[in-house]
Structure formats: C-alpha cells, structure tokens
Amino acid sequence: xxxxxxxxxxxxxxxxxxxxxxxxxxxxxxxxxxxxxxxxxxxxxxxxxxxxxxxxxxxxxxxxxxxxxxxxxxxxxxxxxxxxxxxxxxxxxxxxxxxxxx
Length: 102
Hints:
Layout: E1 12-22, E2 27-32, E3 45-48, E4 55-61, E5 68-71, H1 77-81, E6 87-91
C-alpha cells in the first residue's frame, strides 16, 4: 500500500512572465497571461516564481508595445535580469459557479 497522496491544487496562478528588462532601475517587460490585468496594478502583491514572500507592484505601464512594471526590491538592471523567464503569481480567486481553471 502506498502512502503517497495526490498533489494539492496550487494556491497561486501565474498572471505574467518576465520577458525582459527595461532601463537601468529594475524595470521589467511582461508577457501578460491573465484575463484580469487589474491583478498587476500599483500596490498589488505578486509572487515571483521561486520566492515565498510577495513583492509590491511599484509602477505599471501598459501604453506601449509590452507592459512594463517595477517591483519592490528590484532596483537595478542586474536584479531585474535575474527574473527574466520567471512567472509572476497571485493567489487564486474564487470563481463563480460553473467556471473552472484550465
């Protein structure tokens, strides 16, 4: 008899992936993966893939070709470059009856 259990559903969902950097002060270029872009507004908390504590969104700009953001604690180009390819997550939200995550 096996003691293994099925994996629990994740408590977070990816809303963006860092696709590159912008400028010298830690700006991030994003690939949005969400139908709810308000999840990435100034003051929102995002979890960087591999980190346990959230980071606050300090700025967000969506007027250009790609969305740009800055995150708390990412203050240099070098720090931003370490995040390229990482996903940015938010806690999952309750969905209305009959809707499902996919």
